[in-house]
Amino acid sequence: MLVIVKENYGEVSKEAAAEIASLVREKPDCVLGFATGGTPLGAYKELIRLHREEGLDFSKVTTFNLDEYVGLPPSHPKSYHYYMLENLFNHINVDPRNMFIPMGMAENVHGFCAWYEEKIEKVGGIDLQILGIGANGHIAFNEPGSSLGSRTRIKTLSEKTIRDNRRFFTKEEEVPRYAITMGVGTIMEARQLLLVASGATKADAIRATVEGPITAWYPATIVQMHRFATIVIDKDAASGLRGSYAGF
Ligand code: F6R
């Protein structure tokens, strides 16, 4: 596991975007795994800039997203589908036919999850998976206690996640209770992992992930077992680490 500590969020974003861009240049038909949330936004902005100003070409890239809320259609402004279009896909040249995001409105959720796993396998697996991390150590919607071998499935959101999400919705009944998420095992099969984190609220989770014992209670700790995992964090997120890590 390579841990890269940067001065601030802006540098974390640039570094993450540079890693992604370098793979896209080297392998134009690569398969990228995307995350949503606040942390990757800076990297996505930088990818848009690289596309516009330097011609970074995504036309042959295939993408898979980590997760989506059950019950939200792609047009819902809080859906992860909407987030991806707004924050990345509408501004670069990914072919919509090669974009895969879990379907929150799937009638047969279990069938959909099995199909999603098969689709990832059929395209040859994910080359690079981008990950954020929850303050509780979750990756995707694999909340504490998730099996470290889990596959794409429906998960009940934790009470804390439901409470945290309340502010994004106008009515209580609108707050999603379930999500479709890639499993920890699915994520671990990506050939490369790129986990980004910023800010002191992530310091405990990063310390557990980098230096703690591997436990389902902090699903992100399994990243220690990946052969090609890079963790790009800023100084605040690194503030709980005891070891010394590269600043470049
Ligand atoms: C989103 C996802 C989540 C987030 C995590 C951190 O697709 O998979 O695991 O990465 O909750 O979110 P932020 O970046 O908003 O702190």
List the topology elements:
Elements: E1 2-6, H1 9-26, E2 31-34, H2 41-54, E3 62-65, E4 67-69, H3 80-87, E5 99-100, H4 109-122, E6 128-131, E7 153-156, H5 159-165, E8 178-181, H6 184-188, E9 192-197, H7 203-211, E10 229-234
Parallel strand pairs: 1-10, 2-3, 2-6, 3-5, 6-9, 9-10
Antiparallel strand pairs: 4-8, 7-8
The chain binds fructose -6-phosphate.
Fructose -6-phosphate is lined by residues 35-39, 66-67, 132-134, 138-140.
Keyword list:
3-stranded antiparallel β-sheet; 10 strands; 7-stranded parallel β-sheet; Rossmann fold; binds fructose -6-phosphate; 248 residues; alpha/beta
Task: Give a description of the structure.
This protein has 248 residues and is of the alpha/beta class. It has one domain: 3-Layer(aba) Sandwich (Rossmann fold). It contains 7 helices and 10 strands. The protein has helices spanning 9-26, 41-54, 80-87, 109-122, 159-165, 184-188, 203-211; strands at 2-6, 31-34, 62-65, 67-69, 99-100, 128-131, 153-156, 178-181, 192-197, 229-234. A 7-stranded parallel beta sheet has the order 1-10-9-6-2-3-5, with helices on one face. Helix 1 crosses helix 2 (41-54). The model has no long low-confidence stretch (mean pLDDT 96). Fructose -6-phosphate (F6R) is lined by residues 35-39, 66-67, 132-134, 138-140.
